[in-house]
Amino acid sequence: MACKDGKGGCKDTKKGQSGGKLNLSSITNVLKILSAAFKLQATPVTPIPPPLLIIGAKLRTGLSARNIASRIISRQSEAGAPTGDIFSEGENVSEALETIRVQEIMNAILTEGKVEVALPPGSIQTTSLGVGNFGAPVTSTGMNINIVSGDGIIR
Amino acid sequence: MSLIDDKNAIFGQISALRTSCEGFPKLNLSNSMCSMDNLPNPLDYLIDLLKATIGFESLNLILTKTLTYDLSKIEIEIKKALKRELKSLVSCGVNPSIPNFFLHQTINPLSTGINLDMRKVDYLGVMLIDPNTDAGLLSYGDTNGGLNSVDFHTYLFETIQQDGNQTNWGNINNGSDILSFEFNSIGSTNNQLNIKASQYYSDPVNNKKLTDLNNDFIDSVNLFGSSLMINNIVDSLFGTISSEIGKTIEQIKKEVEIEQIIECFLNTDETTIVDDSFFEFSNESVRIQEEEANSRGNGIKKIKNCGEVAGEIPIPTLTGLTTNILAATNISDVAEIITSGIDEIATLSSDKIQNKDKITAKLNFIDEAIRKLMIKMGGIILSPKIITIFAINHHIVYGTDILDPIEWMKKNKTLMTSIMTSIRETIIKILLEEVIKNIKGVVTCAAQKVIIERTKTQAAQLASLVGISQDVLRMIQGLG
């Protein structure tokens, strides 16, 4: 029953494989699947009530590089790093480096950092009271109708 | 980004998440991970990822799950591929009838059947082992069944012992006989297996076509069994059974050669061109094959550990495990037995290794076992239970016998690729599920920590706005 072309003479009637089946033999697909496994939906942070901000901001002491470095160094032992001048060669280099690191980061934040604020339309409300013609009181209200922006620094 | 950067990125993300989660094994990313390269093999990468992140016990469970619950799924996929290939071989758009010369002698007294050389049907020498021995228990299924065994290999061995008497296969698993076999050790050509369609399939009343015969035969054979696969894996790594039965080095070399060819098919991806180079070996490959054949012939595996040590698995370990699996009454018992069996084998394999390297040795054993499992699953198509039906159809279509299984594989690259792709994708799916489960665990843990941290930070921020002291604020946030 040999077919003339020696291959069975058959046309493949099976429909081509296409469509949604994911090719797991492809490293690219496998890496995409693995990367997707790390994604979690992020939720925005809860805003702090503005009245509290107004009061509390006045109480802030401002950033201090030395204070931050001190706290890091005091907690070094939690990570198993040696603390204090225990090396025969001299000072604890990692502690000195930590201080330098924090000072430079703080310097950049305090002297080069900038805070930009944008307020949406309607966020600034005004009310004014005046006297109109013939001494009659006149009240007017208003609000910002455009986006308002402002600049600040970090202390 | 190159592949190696993408691969490193995954490890980096896991490592970063673990810094905030307690209770997870430390990530162990070492230069010995051969998958950290630009090669597109997802299998090696997933195994290395699992070795680094979850450790031996979890990998053992993956292997157990595959050997217990997933073998049947893989078998279904392989059988689909086999049936497709047989159908395309014989059917030219029309379902062909069983040729007259292949009909049973009770329907066509002049039929000659098909004569196959036993050496080509049993290229790997399965029939050299007697099912009624310890080695036979490890190599055959249902060894007590004799001619009524549900395992085709046991049935075929018993048919060979009948020498000159015709027997039938199929009734036990199919409800009716499918093929009739007669082994003739002496004849115009010695050691020939004469095959005809059974009386039932030859009878026109039953309206059976060649495609029905092929499909029913494929359905009637069991391709895999848990204990057989474990024994095959251990024999492939340590030569336990080969040395017990005294297999010749030449015979073992044939097996090693076929395993290397199958491994080439296993490592293909969508960009690989499958050609005859898969079947050619360099001088270095031949040297490695000879070395491996020698080791297996001696029942050992050479393991590198500050020099070389010889790992071996004694045969009573395998016979004990096989007996326990066969005696188990439900699948969860089988899974438990396999888990402890693999642990015992891994421990024995690292027996001569220095203590500090034992864990690595056990991980390497599991790594090799998973790869050998896939190779042995692919190699099943060269066993008598599958090669027989292809040899029959080849004879019917072309009028000639298959040359030898390696030539047959060369002519059937599409089938080999299809089968190995099914096996590879099933294993990758299992490994990927485990990796994602592990990643999700770490991601969830890290997300919980972030939520707790944000809540504490918010509380501290609110408190800082009403003049609470720094000491209290640090206590709220849990800082030292």
What is the secondary structure topology, with strand pairs?
The complex is a heterodimer of chains A (155) and B (480).
Chain A: H1 27-37, H2 50-57, H3 65-74, H4 93-112, E1 115-119, E2 125-131, E3 137-143, E4 148-152
Helix pairs in contact in A: 3-4
Chain B: H1 3-18, H2 42-53, H3 55-90, E1 114-117, H4 118-121, H5 134-139, H6 152-162, E2 166-169, H7 171-174, E3 179-184, E4 192-197, H8 199-202, H9 210-220, H10 226-238, H11 240-245, H12 249-266, H13 283-297, E5 301-304, E6 308-311, H14 315-327, H15 331-349, H16 358-379, H17 384-398, H18 405-411, H19 413-464, H20 470-477
Antiparallel strand pairs in B: 1-4, 2-3, 3-4, 5-6
Helix pairs in contact in B: 2-3, 2-19, 3-9, 3-15, 3-16, 3-19, 10-14, 10-16, 12-13, 12-16, 14-15, 16-19, 19-20
Question: Nutshell version of this structure?
Answer:
Helix content of chain A is 32%, strand content 15%. Chain A is an alpha+beta fold and 155 residues long. In chain A, a hairpin with a 5-residue loop joins strand 2 and strand 3 (137-143).
